[in-house]
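Action item from last week, closing it out:
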Amino acid sequence: MVSVLVVNDQYLHRLALRMLVAAEPDLTVVGEATDAEGAVRASTALGPDIVLLDSDLSGTDSIDTIRRITQPSRVLDSAAPADLGRAAGRAPRVLVLTPAGRERYAYAALRAGAGGFLLNDCAPDEVTAAVRIVAAGDAVITPALTRELIDAVRQQGSPRLRPHTRGLDTLTGRERDVLVAVASGWSNAEIAERLSIAPTTVKTHVSNMLAKIGARARVQAVTYAYESGLVRPAA
């Protein structure tokens, strides 16, 4: 059973999301919150698997909220003593609902620890499917948003290079090729065709590469490729 905390400052939106999640036999809503502080407190006290977070909480820095929820050390600093045991376990994963055209926000949110993004006009079954996927440890990011994020990273100009970015030296030559391809926006099928390897082999390389660099999603790998200097932004 996947437990979900719903965070939205609009009553009707919270109600709709709660009803949508609760209708699924393998999902359950353990609570809801209307603001950032409530979300952090509830995620600490209730220990949900997923925090379903609206990116537009009124008067809130939702990037900081994501960071506080997904980074246990920050949660523990503000937790009540009775909640420390729960907070010390695996941090919740955050699934963000965001309007279209927010690729720069999504880029910052991924760096803060978000596990997935859906546009807030998506279909109901996309929400429940995404909850399951993110709870399983995978990432959910729409293809269109992935392309926009890559463009946003490229347009930043000179990246903040991190010469000793963790894991880069552990990548094999083929894994580096795959990382460069992912940072170029290629799909697994395109990588397989261009590198003349089987699609199943591509999936293995991608999984190994993500694990070595400490990324949970392909878009995080894009950020890593630019920050490590492996890929340079186009002029």
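Closing note: Residues 2-141 form a domain with the Rossmann fold fold (CATH 3.40.50.2300).
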